[in-house]
Amino acid sequence: MRCSLLVSGAVLLAVVVPASASAATTRYEVEASPATCTGTIDSNWSGFSGSGFCNGTNATGAYAQFTATASAAGTATLEVRFANGTSSSRPADLIVNGTTVQAVSFESTGAWNTWVTKSLPVTVNAGSNTIRLNPTTSGGLPNIDGVGQRQHRQRRARLLVRRRHFGVPEQRLLP
Prior knowledge:
mainly beta
């Protein structure tokens, strides 16, 4: 928001500073507890992180699940690292705390050793959250390397006021 006002030679400019910021990303490896892979943990394709990745074994219901901790309830971004060496997308439901929150399409990456990251916005509870990627076709999930969670912290909106009076600039940051 920007406003300009001229009163007796003074100019006032007000700017609202955005009220949210992102925290650092917390990474969860699919092969490490508390993650669950109902397929197999494999390491036959290069480029993965950790000691392996989740191969959903081309089956509906062969899911990857993570337990992620959030410092506060609110919006977070899940960053799913995956590889899909087929020529078609592999769809899955994103389930957060038992509720399907969105359908996700994991597009082809061209090769099983070509890893990409897909960012998905979700709402999380304060504390422990169960995140599940559940395939919806017999093709199953792509290979899942892990999930990163970046929570968006809420900050109080602040108002930046610039006032210019008789040619002397002045700045103040109001809480």
